Amino acid sequence: MSGHEDVIRVDGLVKSYGAFLALDGVDLQVTRGEVHAFLGPNGAGKSTTIRVLLGLLRADAGEVSLLGGDPWRDVEALHQRLAYVPGDVSLWPGLTGGQAIDLLGRLRGGLDEQRRARLVERFELDPTKRGRQYSKGNKQKVAIVAALASDVELLLLDEPTSGLDPLMEAVFQEEILYEKSRGRSVLLSSHILSEAEALADRVSIIRDGKVVETGTLQQLRHNARSTILATLADPPTDVATWSFAHDARLEGSTFTASIEDRDLNEALAALSAHGITALTVNPPSLEDLFLRHYDLDADKPGSPT
Amino acid sequence: MTRVRMTGGRALLPVALHQDARNIAPWVALISVLSASSVLGYRLVFTDPAEAVALGRTVAANPALALIFGPARDLMTAEGFNTWRAGMLGAFFAGLMAILIVVRNSRADEDSGQAELLASSVMSRPTRLGVAVAMAVIAATLLGLLSWVLTMIFGGDPTDTLFLSLTFAASALMFAGLAAVTAQVGSDARSASTLAIGILGSLFVLRGYIDAVDSPEWATWVTPFGWLEHVAPATENNPWPLLLALTTFVALMAYAFWLQARRDFGQGLIAPKRGPARGGWESTLPGLVTRLNAGSLITWLLAFVVLGFVFGFVATAVGEVLQANPAMAQALAGGAVTEADLTAQFLSTVLSLAGIIAAISGVQVAMRIYAEERNDRVDPLLAGSVTRPAYFSANAVLALAGSALALLIAGSVIATLASDQADLGWGQVFGQAAATIPATWVLVALALAAIGARPEVRLVGWLGLVASFALTILGPLFRIWDWILGISPFWHVPNVTAAAPDWSGMAWLALALAVLTAIGFVGFRRRDIV
Prior knowledge:
The structure holds 2 protein chains of 2 kinds. By secondary structure, chain A is α/β, with parallel strands linked by helices. Chain A contains 11 helices and 13 strands.
């Protein structure tokens, strides 16, 4: 079992458009069989990275290896083994959705007919409409069906669910988990954090053309602080002396703070001395991790300090 | 007519003009240069009246020139020459400019979704169409002014040049009105502009046919181009037909606004039908490329049947046309030239012209490669197991095959109509059409090279067409040196009807074709997909 083989390995990838530096040394590893979430806000470089992986853009510097090959050189061989869903699906105005699915499937080297039929049904897609008649979400469904119905090892999904309604989003998540159970690898670029939280084994966060953090959600959380909320029978007069507590606040009998995982024992010991009547410890959400990297909460007016 | 409110127009117009200025400016400049350059060229080349008389005889001897440029009323003055050389062509291109401006700024925005943002703001329904037409009116005014001033700078007479410039502006107005109507009828921008350009082209060809054969007086009033001919700058300077053009513009605009008030946003008068749920022949790469270009290719092939008939009929009438001209009749009677020679000369001109027009269809296919790329529709194909060379060659083959087929269609129609006319066999006329194909291909390959290697300079593809037209059709009149004329690929086409055709030109064409195609392929492999 080649469990630790990388299907994607990117080291120090640089890409600029004229004077604009889009990618400034991106490092990214996706292991075979995992769903890897690629997170970042608009314009951080997610799509540019994926388009380099597809061989559409030529890397200015850095090492890029995809399924053991060079995405720029081995286009044909590699593309038979992957499927792609673009974030902005643009369909041929005169072709129906069904024709577009068959076209993309045939160009990739074939579709699984049963799977195609099942996906069309599950996503409630009308394949007889023309490209220009589809709404945004339905265009997206055409691209998703075309990608998932093909028999490939790797799925490159660039914000695949933008425009999908919540029901279809749920169907999408089930289908991705099914793909994973069949041993396929997925690179899921997204800014929908709940989606990444539900699907991803590992996460990479990209900011301004650089990957700033990567790891399993657990690892990422480990580096971040949990939120603790305790109701105390005998609240202390001053919490400032508790060095483990960051952003500590005491309102009446309710104490809130954020703490590092390694300080958890110390915190509980200190709190229990004051008679804990209720306690919740929340691990940092992906949103917390994400915001931490983008310093958004620091810039937000009126945020707690 | 109820009052048309233009709320929001004042805010939108400057922004739209600013955005579109780069697209409009080349048209205004090129048409003005067309006029200014003929005044300058005439003063440089035809210094001796005897040479101008000789020019008159050359023009009279070749009805193909009347077909393209209209009748030559007076070639003894620079202004008269300018009216002949730039008048109809300028009017044609001014009309094309206006159509593209109106469709691009009204209908195309609805397809792309930009207009939805505008339509949801405080803006009355007719505003966007009004702004698009206002832009065309501004472009028409600028064109009139620039061509007037520029031609005067190069020595044109102020009054004569003013009338000529006014015909350009008048043409732009009429076809802006036409485009405003077709933008309401077509179901998307593409069909709206195809419809308008189709009408423009048909009217121009009809005008050419009427001018090339010996037609009755009333026939010259059939087309709007005929009206502009009746303005007759430099000879009559008659302003009344301009009023007719203005009336036409106002009437078309009123009709367009009436139609627009009854149309759904983003829809035309024809609702799209449902289609097959499964892919068929178009699910392969060559199938897809053919399918995407099918509409315009079929239109082109039909247009070449019509062109073939027009050229063929004029060829059969060469004798009559020449007899109607006293000087030519004399030359024919004296045995200085034979009708067969003149028919052969006519055929060679129209086949070169057909070759240049056929290249337009090929260049369009090439440009489509980039348009699809800009619309993000190439990424998913190349993300499949389609290689870049495969994608590029599917398009290149269609561009080359389509333009060759168009030329062969026109050639066979012309040959059928005209072959016994000048003691030429069917095979010879058709053979000449076939021999023109490599020259057409060089122009298509130029566009392929630009699109493949450097799409930012894709304008080169269109400039190649313009340059070939100028050198092949106009160059000989100016008696330009051979080495300059040789820049046009059509100069190298062998004369198949000659006793011993000189095939060496074919080698040059083949070389150019190979080099340009190779640049396209190699470039497309290496560059980033946009």
